[in-house]
Amino acid sequence: MKAAIIGVTGYGGIELLRLLANHPSIDVHSIHTSSQTGMRLSEVYPHVTNLVNHSLEEIDIPKIANEVDVVFLSTPSGVSTTIVPELLNENVKIIDLSGDYRLKNPNVYEQWYKKPAALQEDLNKATYGLPEWYKEEIQNSRFISNPGCYPTATVLGLAPIIKHELIDESSIVIDAKSGISGAGKSPSRTTHFAESNDNFSIYKVNQHQHIPEIEQVIQGWDASIPYVTFSTHLVPMTRGIMSTMYINSAVDSLSLEQLYEIYKESYQDSPFVRIREKGTFSATKEVYGTNYCDIGLAFDKRTNRITVVSVIDNLVKGAAGQAIQNANIMFGLDEKTGLHYVPLFP
Amino acid sequence: MKAAIIGVTGYGGIELLRLLANHPSIDVHSIHTSSQTGMRLSEVYPHVTNLVNHSLEEIDIPKIANEVDVVFLSTPSGVSTTIVPELLNENVKIIDLSGDYRLKNPNVYEQWYKKPAALQEDLNKATYGLPEWYKEEIQNSRFISNPGCYPTATVLGLAPIIKHELIDESSIVIDAKSGISGAGKSPSRTTHFAESNDNFSIYKVNQHQHIPEIEQVIQGWDASIPYVTFSTHLVPMTRGIMSTMYINSAVDSLSLEQLYEIYKESYQDSPFVRIREKGTFSATKEVYGTNYCDIGLAFDKRTNRITVVSVIDNLVKGAAGQAIQNANIMFGLDEKTGLHYVPLFP
Amino acid sequence: MKAAIIGVTGYGGIELLRLLANHPSIDVHSIHTSSQTGMRLSEVYPHVTNLVNHSLEEIDIPKIANEVDVVFLSTPSGVSTTIVPELLNENVKIIDLSGDYRLKNPNVYEQWYKKPAALQEDLNKATYGLPEWYKEEIQNSRFISNPGCYPTATVLGLAPIIKHELIDESSIVIDAKSGISGAGKSPSRTTHFAESNDNFSIYKVNQHQHIPEIEQVIQGWDASIPYVTFSTHLVPMTRGIMSTMYINSAVDSLSLEQLYEIYKESYQDSPFVRIREKGTFSATKEVYGTNYCDIGLAFDKRTNRITVVSVIDNLVKGAAGQAIQNANIMFGLDEKTGLHYVPLFP
Amino acid sequence: MKAAIIGVTGYGGIELLRLLANHPSIDVHSIHTSSQTGMRLSEVYPHVTNLVNHSLEEIDIPKIANEVDVVFLSTPSGVSTTIVPELLNENVKIIDLSGDYRLKNPNVYEQWYKKPAALQEDLNKATYGLPEWYKEEIQNSRFISNPGCYPTATVLGLAPIIKHELIDESSIVIDAKSGISGAGKSPSRTTHFAESNDNFSIYKVNQHQHIPEIEQVIQGWDASIPYVTFSTHLVPMTRGIMSTMYINSAVDSLSLEQLYEIYKESYQDSPFVRIREKGTFSATKEVYGTNYCDIGLAFDKRTNRITVVSVIDNLVKGAAGQAIQNANIMFGLDEKTGLHYVPLFP
């Protein structure tokens, strides 16, 4: 299979390239960007010197669609809506890593993203690419909207207790933390080393655009869930997300053992979700560079509250790795193809 | 005034020394440790070369009590209980930075600390040294139990909404994050650079010994508050604590403006608590090296939930700085004496 | 004494403000910047909330000169040359933290800085503000050109062996490393956290504009010294410079003991230079936040080569602290005034 | 082919495991350690949960030699000498990652390592496993002594100019910097996060045990080279080594173009050495997680001095990756087998 990557110079794009470089069935045919066209990629990212010989090409949709089997869009919010409609007219699979096609309701998109939404008809065509819960839909889709990094960690953590109706639906509090690569490649004061190093900050309290994405997914499973509380923090590290979730139990005499059983069963066929040993929790480095989502659990009898701790690499399971997992499924490959790495540790 | 520091080679002790070095009214008379006696401090901490000429002395309580006005105890849990009883027999003020005298109920101490508790009669003599809420008690006390780092950030953040009875008492969720200096000076795998750098982890979920301390303080203000949920995370940075707190509002039509008014009024006479501009939140670096506790607020109408974000330097307001603030109050000095620094930034 | 700070929003400027906030004899009267005029400083730097109430003022030289005793210029290269000529016509002391008046030869400036040089007559008026070696000149000057960060660490390390004619003049190799705050406040790819964290890089090999500054100073002491080799590296930390210097000994049977004696004697009257215990070397954190320059020494009999290791905080002894030390000397104060801090550790 | 790893719980061992997990021709058959026998590896390193199911076995040499084709020894200094003699009696290939068999002269070993040396006859059997310069010897060897991390970066950087006799042999100055994983897995004050974070230090000045290793290699190429000057620094990052080398040119009218030609030609058949574009230098992150050694060059006409900048990942090309490269060569495989990764960036 041949792939094109549009928006390759962002961190999601460069990570797609890293992972696809060793993928046995998907070759990167061409890489595209709206600027710097004609440059070799190694001029922008010298770490690929000798390893990636592609040059940056312009975004010529008919040409791309003619030459490849799948197009990965790793573009900022608001760009995919200008490219996807044309791609949908072509005979090519599409995996969009941006947020543009995740929210089914264009009004909600416009409220949270402050940008014009995609067309409703195109939104309807997009399949939410969370393979652990929508594998069949993905198999039958040609257009995937790849989940956001925070929602991936969060909804994988929440799914089993929601599906088993164990919780007080109005009690969900999500305290999420991310490495700074999540802010992307554009330098800013927030990502300026001198000010972000040795520092910990909170941002977009109650205002993060991933809030409606989380709500859409979990309300799809349990319509009685109202809004959630969700905060995001910046950790002085490059990669990694931890989502710490607090939920009141709605059942009598819940036990930690029960919780573990439910989670293990829920994910027994999901090779990238690892339920950790009871009493242990994964640190973000334990999934570094890989597509794993590690989940740990606690239950406090004193407060009748469940704590779920879910950890991913934001650039892999939170972006490029999950996109490749989706591509594997779309192409009928084993979903692990090209993704079975041992985390880089230390 | 003359001071002795017992346990000076821990991070709390060395920070006491840094701050007292420029204190106009309190001189460090002697420094003590249970090991390394006879060495100059600069042999253990070369950064004090030429600046601190004291040598490490053994812990001879009668001699110490005879020579100084105040003794700071910056010792690990379980050590103060072997020293304080003797000190209480002497005519000297005592400020204990350890956790040994914070919990009034010895059974609770033994349950959470897994160590023998102090004597009940000595526990009764200890005043909880949180100056913003117990200033009068501190003025009249000769024995201060200095608050824990997490409880300081947390209860300063919770106090106004508890005292104004704005909240659902059973809904308090506290997600706390700390720099790694909070783990102290002893090397361990958890604090090993190669494994903690570029990493974010959670620890002691529902089991941190600061949980009963927080509960004791806030239940003292509102006996109807049941247990709280409290998690602690390690951030790859040296100093700083952020406590992010989620609490359901119990009142109709709460507004963010109201919240800010209540917080500003609550702390109008507290020089070290800074209520931040509406809509902004302090990052930990914004209090680096200083005794400030910065508080930011959010209220989400969608969920009727309040978010309080409280930030301190764990070694200053969370330990040595607060101890000096307490000493100032005990000696009748302005509580800011020797503590009015601008945070080190960047 | 009253001071104005021009360029206060850069890291040198904000550090001047931090240190002057506790200076007993110099008050910050006004702060100035070419942009953001009218804003309160706390809007740009929220860490000064409640502590600095100044607003940013425009740069009106006659007004400033009329109101203050000393003007600190903490502006980027090329800006001071537009301000200093006017200031020289006024009755006010001037301390310029930029590189504009350090090089006496305007051609050399233009070659290395790629900018128009200052007027030769104004260059002649500037005193190079390295107090350890030019104290008398500073006392008699009203216009100080504050040394660069790398040159400060480097020439303090080289001075004793040059003045004692111990070295092969053509053999000086300087390998310097700096924290990322040295790159200033403007975000760029080089200072972008995701790419600079957990990374170590070299830059401006043989091309750093501090090379001619170092050469000018040491050639002033020994005209037979030719060019030096000087490389600069970026360390993933906020503050700190280490300059590791390698110099061939030119004398027979040099001993390490001799070297230490020479250094101790050279700096016996320099309160901010600390010659470390034989066999030990200071890490950058051991001077964090302070005006100290720590020097360690090695001599390798196998190669007959001396290694000098000199460490400073680039924003203090390498910028704001040294500027205040110069101001103290100009005003006839003890040079330590307002600068005797214990390093922040850990 | 089957492999055993002795000393798997060190960072070199765990990195061997990470890389061999995806090696198409070498399977990890068993893993061994002197302690923690019987535990699953995931209990010590939870990041391998579900990925590595091996348990830690004791070190039974005959059994190991009977079952595998190659033994990797990733043990601390002084341990290999107790294992290798027995292994040499067995029919198995040996790759020793420790320093025990690198120095051919046992007296030199004992002087620098302060430990008893290996037997001279066994030292004679060991092949120094630097594939770029000893490929043929490695092909014909069954016992490889894998180079040290600093020597790998350093001698790859020095080789071309030494072999082309371009330099003043007595002028070699090497200023090396390493991430903290180079200090290994044992916690210590030096590697304690609170003290090593945001800090830069120098250690073992003129005393590092890699000095004689570097000298042995380069003197093997040019016997007229005397001792070298070599310093090592700790960078607050996990992985990566940069060796910055300063060497006087011995030829008239050397040009940078010439230098680049020589380096490119020298390494044209070395897939893991990347000579960077003229005027650019690799940062350590540009080889993160991979077996590449990136080299950049400068020549300063002013001083007639060459600067060589060589960068590796200390745990890959400086340890486990190079060991696998050696194994590939010993087994007649393409040396890149299992090692062609794109660096993890950012």
TrEMBL record, chains A, B, C, D:
Subcellular location field: Cytoplasm
Reactions catalysed according to its record: N-acetyl-L-glutamate 5-semialdehyde + phosphate + NADP(+) = N-acetyl-L-glutamyl 5-phosphate + NADPH + H(+)
Annotated GO CC locations: cytoplasm
Molecular-function GO term, any one: N-acetyl-gamma-glutamyl-phosphate reductase activity
Keywords: Amino-acid biosynthesis, Arginine biosynthesis, Cytoplasm, NADP, Oxidoreductase
Biological process (GO), any one: L-arginine biosynthetic process
Occurrences of domain Semialdehyde dehydrogenase NAD-binding (ranges): 2-141
Coiled coil location: none
Entry EC no(s): 1.2.1.38
Active site feature: 149
Pathway as given in its UniProt record: Amino-acid biosynthesis; L-arginine biosynthesis; N(2)-acetyl-L-ornithine from L-glutamate: step 3/4
SMART domains referenced in this protein's UniProt entry, alphabetically: Semialdhyde_dh (SM00859)
Gene3D superfamilies, sorted: Dihydrodipicolinate Reductase, domain 2, NAD(P)-binding Rossmann-like Domain
Catalytic EC class: oxidoreductase
Domain of life: Bacteria
Function (record text): Catalyzes the NADPH-dependent reduction of N-acetyl-5-glutamyl phosphate to yield N-acetyl-L-glutamate 5-semialdehyde.
Protein family according to the UniProt entry: Belongs to the NAGSA dehydrogenase family. Type 1 subfamily.
NCBIfam families noted in UniProt: argC (TIGR01850)
Protein name (Swiss-Prot/TrEMBL): N-acetyl-gamma-glutamyl-phosphate reductase
Encoding gene (name): argC
